[in-house]
Specification:
The protein is of the alpha+beta class. The protein has one domain: Yope Regulator, Chain: A (2-Layer Sandwich), CATH 3.30.1460. The chain is 36% helix and 21% strand. The protein starts with 33 loop residues before the first helix and ends in an 8-residue tail after the last helix.
Length: 183
Protein backbone atom coordinates (compact mmCIF):
# COMPACT_ATOMS: atom_id res chain seq x y z
CA UNK A 1 0.00 0.00 0.00
CA UNK A 2 1.27 3.48 -0.97
CA UNK A 3 1.61 6.12 1.75
CA UNK A 4 -1.02 8.83 1.50
CA UNK A 5 -0.20 12.44 0.87
CA UNK A 6 -1.84 14.68 3.49
CA UNK A 7 -4.91 16.53 2.21
CA UNK A 8 -4.20 19.78 0.49
CA UNK A 9 -0.60 18.77 -0.18
CA UNK A 10 0.73 17.30 -3.36
CA UNK A 11 4.11 15.79 -3.90
CA UNK A 12 6.23 16.59 -6.93
CA UNK A 13 5.26 13.24 -8.45
CA UNK A 14 1.56 14.18 -8.17
CA UNK A 15 1.90 17.03 -10.64
CA UNK A 16 0.27 16.05 -13.92
CA UNK A 17 1.59 16.78 -17.39
CA UNK A 18 -0.49 19.97 -17.68
CA UNK A 19 0.41 21.24 -14.24
CA UNK A 20 3.74 22.46 -13.11
CA UNK A 21 4.83 23.43 -9.71
CA UNK A 22 5.53 27.08 -9.22
CA UNK A 23 8.81 27.84 -7.57
CA UNK A 24 8.41 29.19 -4.08
CA UNK A 25 9.70 32.74 -4.05
CA UNK A 26 10.88 33.87 -0.69
CA UNK A 27 11.08 37.51 0.21
CA UNK A 28 14.65 38.73 0.43
CA UNK A 29 15.87 41.04 3.20
CA UNK A 30 14.69 44.58 2.47
CA UNK A 31 11.84 43.48 0.21
CA UNK A 32 8.30 44.56 0.89
CA UNK A 33 5.23 42.36 0.87
CA UNK A 34 3.30 42.69 -2.41
CA UNK A 35 0.40 44.42 -0.66
CA UNK A 36 2.67 46.96 1.03
CA UNK A 37 4.67 47.50 -2.16
CA UNK A 38 1.52 48.26 -4.17
CA UNK A 39 -0.04 50.41 -1.44
CA UNK A 40 3.07 52.58 -1.29
CA UNK A 41 3.35 52.65 -5.08
CA UNK A 42 -0.25 53.79 -5.38
CA UNK A 43 0.25 56.52 -2.77
CA UNK A 44 3.42 57.74 -4.49
CA UNK A 45 1.75 57.70 -7.92
CA UNK A 46 -1.33 59.60 -6.76
CA UNK A 47 0.69 62.32 -5.01
CA UNK A 48 2.83 62.86 -8.14
CA UNK A 49 -0.13 63.20 -10.49
CA UNK A 50 -1.17 66.71 -11.51
CA UNK A 51 -4.17 68.15 -9.67
CA UNK A 52 -6.65 67.37 -12.48
CA UNK A 53 -5.73 63.66 -12.31
CA UNK A 54 -5.74 63.31 -8.53
CA UNK A 55 -9.50 62.67 -8.68
CA UNK A 56 -8.88 59.28 -10.32
CA UNK A 57 -10.28 56.47 -8.22
CA UNK A 58 -7.99 53.63 -7.19
CA UNK A 59 -8.41 49.90 -6.57
CA UNK A 60 -5.85 47.41 -5.40
CA UNK A 61 -6.55 43.76 -6.22
CA UNK A 62 -3.96 41.10 -5.46
CA UNK A 63 -0.86 41.87 -7.52
CA UNK A 64 -2.32 44.81 -9.44
CA UNK A 65 -3.61 48.33 -9.00
CA UNK A 66 -6.11 50.18 -11.16
CA UNK A 67 -6.78 53.89 -11.52
CA UNK A 68 -9.88 55.06 -13.35
CA UNK A 69 -12.09 58.10 -13.92
CA UNK A 70 -15.81 57.47 -14.46
CA UNK A 71 -15.78 53.92 -15.78
CA UNK A 72 -13.75 51.26 -13.92
CA UNK A 73 -13.78 49.12 -17.09
CA UNK A 74 -11.53 51.74 -18.73
CA UNK A 75 -8.56 52.05 -16.43
CA UNK A 76 -4.83 52.45 -15.98
CA UNK A 77 -3.31 49.32 -14.54
CA UNK A 78 -0.04 48.27 -13.00
CA UNK A 79 0.30 44.50 -12.70
CA UNK A 80 3.21 42.71 -11.05
CA UNK A 81 4.31 39.50 -12.79
CA UNK A 82 6.64 38.24 -10.10
CA UNK A 83 7.45 34.90 -11.75
CA UNK A 84 8.66 36.68 -14.89
CA UNK A 85 10.28 39.52 -12.92
CA UNK A 86 8.29 42.11 -14.87
CA UNK A 87 5.72 44.79 -14.21
CA UNK A 88 3.10 45.68 -16.80
CA UNK A 89 1.87 49.28 -16.93
CA UNK A 90 -0.96 50.11 -19.24
CA UNK A 91 -4.29 51.54 -20.24
CA UNK A 92 -6.92 48.81 -20.46
CA UNK A 93 -10.27 48.83 -22.22
CA UNK A 94 -12.27 46.05 -20.56
CA UNK A 95 -15.87 46.96 -21.30
CA UNK A 96 -18.35 44.16 -22.07
CA UNK A 97 -18.56 45.51 -25.66
CA UNK A 98 -15.62 44.10 -27.70
CA UNK A 99 -16.25 46.34 -30.75
CA UNK A 100 -16.13 49.40 -28.48
CA UNK A 101 -12.89 48.18 -26.91
CA UNK A 102 -11.44 47.77 -30.41
CA UNK A 103 -12.55 51.30 -31.44
CA UNK A 104 -10.97 52.76 -28.30
CA UNK A 105 -7.72 50.92 -29.01
CA UNK A 106 -7.65 51.94 -32.66
CA UNK A 107 -8.27 55.56 -31.77
CA UNK A 108 -5.17 55.66 -29.58
CA UNK A 109 -3.09 53.24 -31.70
CA UNK A 110 -3.11 55.83 -34.50
CA UNK A 111 -0.77 57.85 -32.26
CA UNK A 112 1.42 54.91 -31.26
CA UNK A 113 4.58 56.18 -33.06
CA UNK A 114 4.35 59.46 -31.13
CA UNK A 115 3.55 57.68 -27.87
CA UNK A 116 6.58 55.41 -28.32
CA UNK A 117 8.84 58.46 -28.56
CA UNK A 118 7.45 59.67 -25.22
CA UNK A 119 7.07 56.41 -23.27
CA UNK A 120 9.58 54.15 -25.00
CA UNK A 121 9.71 51.69 -27.87
CA UNK A 122 8.44 48.89 -25.65
CA UNK A 123 4.94 50.38 -25.75
CA UNK A 124 2.49 48.01 -27.46
CA UNK A 125 -1.19 48.22 -28.45
CA UNK A 126 -3.10 44.97 -28.87
CA UNK A 127 -6.35 43.08 -28.50
CA UNK A 128 -6.30 40.95 -25.42
CA UNK A 129 -8.45 38.45 -23.57
CA UNK A 130 -12.30 38.38 -23.57
CA UNK A 131 -12.58 41.02 -26.29
CA UNK A 132 -10.60 43.47 -24.19
CA UNK A 133 -7.78 45.65 -25.54
CA UNK A 134 -4.77 47.35 -24.01
CA UNK A 135 -1.91 49.74 -24.56
CA UNK A 136 0.95 48.70 -22.33
CA UNK A 137 4.63 48.37 -21.67
CA UNK A 138 6.57 46.03 -19.44
CA UNK A 139 9.47 46.94 -17.21
CA UNK A 140 11.93 44.72 -15.36
CA UNK A 141 11.19 44.11 -11.69
CA UNK A 142 13.56 41.92 -9.74
CA UNK A 143 12.89 43.14 -6.18
CA UNK A 144 9.95 44.66 -4.32
CA UNK A 145 12.00 47.26 -2.48
CA UNK A 146 11.57 50.99 -1.94
CA UNK A 147 13.83 51.85 -4.88
CA UNK A 148 11.80 49.74 -7.32
CA UNK A 149 8.62 51.16 -5.79
CA UNK A 150 9.75 54.74 -6.44
CA UNK A 151 10.90 53.94 -10.00
CA UNK A 152 7.63 52.18 -10.90
CA UNK A 153 5.53 54.95 -9.34
CA UNK A 154 7.33 57.51 -11.50
CA UNK A 155 6.92 55.39 -14.66
CA UNK A 156 3.23 54.76 -13.89
CA UNK A 157 2.64 58.45 -13.30
CA UNK A 158 4.32 59.33 -16.62
CA UNK A 159 2.22 56.74 -18.43
CA UNK A 160 -1.01 58.07 -16.91
CA UNK A 161 -0.13 61.72 -17.61
CA UNK A 162 0.78 60.88 -21.22
CA UNK A 163 -2.14 58.58 -22.05
CA UNK A 164 -4.97 60.28 -20.16
CA UNK A 165 -5.65 62.99 -22.79
CA UNK A 166 -5.79 60.23 -25.44
CA UNK A 167 -8.07 58.15 -23.19
CA UNK A 168 -10.49 61.08 -22.79
CA UNK A 169 -10.51 61.80 -26.54
CA UNK A 170 -11.02 58.13 -27.40
CA UNK A 171 -13.91 57.75 -24.96
CA UNK A 172 -15.59 60.87 -26.32
CA UNK A 173 -15.02 59.79 -29.93
CA UNK A 174 -16.30 56.26 -29.21
CA UNK A 175 -19.49 57.65 -27.71
CA UNK A 176 -20.23 59.52 -30.93
CA UNK A 177 -23.26 61.75 -31.33
CA UNK A 178 -26.28 60.82 -29.25
CA UNK A 179 -29.93 61.23 -30.05
CA UNK A 180 -30.23 63.77 -27.25
CA UNK A 181 -27.46 65.92 -28.69
CA UNK A 182 -29.15 66.15 -32.05
CA UNK A 183 -26.41 64.14 -33.82
Amino acid sequence: MMPRTPRGRRGASDVGPRQRQRPVRRRLPGELRTTDFLRGLLDATCTRLPTELQALQARQQGSLVKLFADDPEIHFELWLHRGRERAELGLHFETPDPPRNQRLLEYIADDLPFLKTVLGNGLEAEPWDKGWTRIYLTLPLTRLDSSAQADLALAFCELIETLDPFRREAVNAALGPTRDSGG
